[in-house]
User: What shape does this take?
Amino acid sequence: MVNHFYVYCLDRDFGPFFLKFSTYFPYNAKLCLNGHEYAKRQLAQRGICFEALDNGVLRCDEPKRLQAICDGLSAEKIDALLRKWLRKLPHPFTPADRKAGYRYEISILQAEFSLTQVLDRPVTGRVFFEEVIRENLDIGRPSQVQLIFNRKVSKRTPGRFRTRVITDGIVPSLHIDYKNTRVKQYHKQGRALRTETTINDTRDFGVGKRLKNLPALRQIGFRANRRLLDVQKISHDCAIGEEAFRQVVRPVEINGQRASALRFGDQRAQALFAVLVVFSIQLRGFTNAEMRALLAQLLGLDPANYPQGRMTYDLRRLRLHGIIERIPRSHRYQLTPGGLRIALFFSRVHDRLLRPMLATIMPQAPPTSAPIRKAFDRLQSVIDDCCQEQKLVA
Assistant: This one.
């Protein structure tokens, strides 16, 4: 016995959608459509150039008109879509039934409202979103949830209040629950921050289920998205730090002048940072010759034979990367405020953290009671056990 049958349709105005009909009394039906597809169809009909992002929009030449199209998706248009296709498709109610007053009435089983914020630097956006997750693990607590949904939460409020971080592959997502409603936030296709509120029971907000209540639900859903962003404690240090790191370790071009990267861990780059730290306490700055003398010693070279041109090349690199600047009307240089911090951090992390810690955790190093060595040894033991277990299972 066939319990349900599906009809997949392609509408001129709404794009793809489907209808699911039940074959037994009272012959319930389900209409499922996507507002993003409606928006893309309307943009195409109006000749507005856009680029899709899965079921959303990545870029649009006329964003204000796109917003007007989204706002114009009304309950009346959705109802008209259903009536149009019921006249075309076979369904359980015969003409005699409809004449007697039996007809489908739309109620809202599930409604999803999304906010997609496209990022101009996707890699930095991923770092930013991971920082959002890290700093908002308590966002699912009742005190926070009532701020997101603007509703009082008491001991009698049903549902679990929790924050879930779910990893699908390597893409994490943040989930917050309120009764039967869920808010999900994730990094969409590596290009955008997506926040979406899914309402599975309109009664959670004292709103009826009939389609005429769509405007009220729209306000609840979109406001929840915005309130989540307002409530979240977001550290911008991740973006600042990512930009500062890239500015140093990647090639740059300033006013047509190119400079190669100062790679972290590169012997010459690390020696430059170490020498700059020495000159940071010298108020009158430093010259090419003074810099060259110290740099050659750190590299194990004879200062008398270190080429002046090579030092000039390095000073130019440091200047274009914003680490040093030339003192006006002189041949002396000084560290910039940001350059001092970069030089200190890069040299200290390499010499006092990275190099000694690597010496501690490597297998060929002598056994030690250092906590980090014990942790890595334990990790290796667990990995070996897992490999052995898989071999036994096979």
In short: The chain has a mean pLDDT of 86. The chain has four domains: 1-105, 107-235, 254-361, 363-394. The CA atoms of residues 368 and 374 lie 8 Å apart. The chain is about 45% helix and 20% strand.
